[in-house]
Structure formats: C-alpha cells, structure tokens
Write a structure and sequence with these properties.
Helix content: 25-40%
Structural class: alpha+beta
Order of helices and strands: HEEEHEEEEHHH
Strand content: 15-25%
Radius of gyration: 23 Å
Oligomer: single chain
Strand order of the largest sheet: 2-3-4-5-6
Distance between the termini: 79 Å
Shape: globular
Number of strands: 7
Length: 205
C-alpha cells in the first residue's frame, strides 16, 4: 500500500510539473518578443538610417505597378516591392499592430514588356530607388520617419514631414502604414479590429 501511495504521489508530481511546463510554454508563445538590439534600426553617428543589407531576406509583402498617390500626376510603370522585418511581421500577425522598431524597405524597379521570350505584360528589371519607413518611438517625436536612398548609397537622413509622413498619417489604414494595399495584411487588421476604414478610403484630413 505504501509503495502504491508513493507511486501515486510521484505520478501526481510529474503531472503537475508537466502542466506547469506547458503553461510557461504557452505564455512564452503569447508574449511579445523582447527587444533585440541587433534587430533594431541602425543609425550613423549623425542620425542617418543605415540601409539594411539583408532586407531581401525579410518578409515580402506585396508589389505595386505604376502606383501614383497624387491625382495630378500620371501613373508610372515601375514596380514597387515591399519587405518588412520578420520579427515585426510576426507581432503584426499576433496583434494587428506594428511594434516599436518596425522597419519597412521599399524598392522601386523599372519594368519592361519585351525581352527573351516575353511579348506581353510587365516584368521587373533594374533597381532605381530604395526607401524605408521606421517606427522608432524614442528617436522620432511622431514615432514614424521615412527615408529615401539613392541607388548605391548606404545611409539616408529622415525625409521632411510633408514628404511622406503627412500622407501616411492621414491615409494609413493601420498605424501610418498603407495596409489597404497589402492583400495578406488587411484581413489580419480586420480580424484584430485595427483597420481604419475611413483613412484607408482616403476621406480623412
């Protein structure tokens, strides 16, 4: 009887320890990742953003073709490809919001219609421009800042507020970002009720 009692107590103790381990694991999964300095935006000593060289290994979000936000201008023919840091993407999927230290990189590439065996449609060619948007709440008073890189340059100062911030702030569907143009991101924001329909429709300020 004593042997059976000891075995029962041992089994109960093992069960309790397993349950505690599962609870800790679930909390770890649900909790946002701790800030990682190596994952943070990098700046030069004079405050310029350093171009993330591995951005093409980040999460690819979508591409646009000939997009133009100014109705007075004619649509172009360039492709725009957008990438976001993997850690920020995972947090967005979890909450529908972009965490601090989020970084997007947008590349503009020329397009062509004829080449090799292609005789219709458009495909991407040379890199023409790079841009980045950064959410860094301690560095920027308005949380977000925008940067433009000429091809071949490795650092860029923040753009003037009226260049990009004003438009993103007025029309970004989620936290200064044009989630309305990303077919895989919009349903996530809708699910988490973080999608601003009015701003996405272009009816705000």
């Amino acid at each position: 009887m004593r042997l059976q009692a000891r075995q029962s107590l041992t089994e109960i103790a093992v069960f309790v320890l397993m349950a505690m381990a599962v609870g800790v694991a679930l909390e770890t999964i649900d909790a946002p990742a701790a800030p990682n300095e190596a994952d943070a935006p990098q700046y030069s000593s004079d405050g310029k953003l350093l171009l993330p060289h591995d951005y093409r290994e980040w999460i690819y979000l979508s591409s646009g073709l000939g997009m133009e936000y100014n109705p007075a201008h004619k649509p172009g023919s360039e492709f725009t490809n957008v990438f976001v840091k993997p850690s920020s993407y995972r947090e967005y999927l979890r909450t529908g919001r972009w965490p601090d230290r989020t970084v997007f990189v947008l590349e503009e590439r020329a397009s062509a219609t004829q080449g090799s065996i292609n005789h219709g449609g458009h495909y991407q060619t040379a890199l023409e421009h790079l841009a980045a948007s950064v959410k860094d709440e301690k560095r920027f008073p308005e949380k977000w800042a925008y940067f433009s890189f000429a091809v071949g340059t490795q650092e860029a100062p923040p753009n003037p507020r009226e260049a990009c911030f004003a438009c993103h702030n007025a029309h970004g569907a989620v936290d200064n970002t044009f989630v309305q143009f990303y077919p895989t991101l919009k349903p996530v924001a809708m699910k988490h009720a973080t999608y601003n329909t009015a701003e996405a429709a272009g009816t705000q300020k």
